[in-house]
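Dock phenylalanine; give full complex structure.
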Amino acid sequence: MMTDLETLQAETEAAIAASTTPRELDAVRVGIMGKSGRLTAMLKELGRATPDERRERGAALNRVRDVITGALDLRRVGLETAALDSRLAAERIDVTLPPPPEQSGLIHPISRTMEEMAAIFGAMGFSVGEGPDVETTWHNFSALNIPAHHPARAEMDTFYLPGTRNGHPLVLRTHTSNVQIISMLQGEPPLRVIAPGRTYRADHDATHSPMFHQCEGIAIDRGLTLGHLKGCLIDFLRAFFGISNLPVRFRASYFPFTEPSMEVDIGWNRKTGELGGGGDWLEILGSGMVHPRVLANCGVDPREWQGFAFGMGVERVAMLKYGMSDLRPFYESDARWLRHYGFNPLAPVALHEGVAP
Ligand code: PHE
């Protein structure tokens, strides 16, 4: 015959084994060791026993209590481990699966166009640099030989900000040409850098936005000439637009930071908007040989080093390449527009893409 203690232990062990959740297990614990639990009641009864009985019974009760406590702990760890394992199994994800089509995002045309620029200029040995959107008037104007009276400096054209850096007032950069300065100050010639990024001007209509993007380029080396500049930009424009015989025209112009300066036009048909033919010209970017004074401002000796630079509007060339007529949707975050003009993120820019054979 089993004693009452043996029965208690056997029944409790069976109940512990039968528990399938931490909650059920806790109910078993309370039923045995809680305030009105069975074991608790037996311990209370000890008070009425004689000293000899108490010693013997007490030891037996303690033994059973230790056995049950151990079994409860073991089962609790087992249940928790099992719960975690089944959660891990249920929530397992296969990171190699492609996203479901309804969840895949698209690359914005601005990002895509800047990647295309980086791919083409990258193949020509340019690396990608950057400069701050909040710039000093020295980097944005003075170091670039832009005189104090130049209209680009006027309050109505430029967003000035409170505060100064190194004693110079702050502006939202009006072009990416500050990166010309930064590249020369931070690097050693020879160097080739492009810098796509945001720029800001107080302009707002169908073809102008107060924030827009440019891509700057600068090359500094010994013996660089206008011929290198022309070759570089003709190759770029033909690769970018994917038209191997795209007509490109260089037209004398003026920028304070280049001498000589040239505006670059590409051939197109004004009536149809088609690029490449039609006998009309479309202005597409500004360029020139880096002014000796700008080289000197950056500690580059103009007697030893020459350079060329260029800057173009990212939205402008994207609109031409992808046939968009309005600038404003670029910044409106309209998912319908992005679904139409966006690019597959899993199909990265390939250099050969768009380059006619
Ligand atoms: N910074 C000029 C602009 O914003 C473009 C340019 C860049 C011209 C480099 C010459 C050389 O219009």
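Observed: The mean pLDDT is 92.
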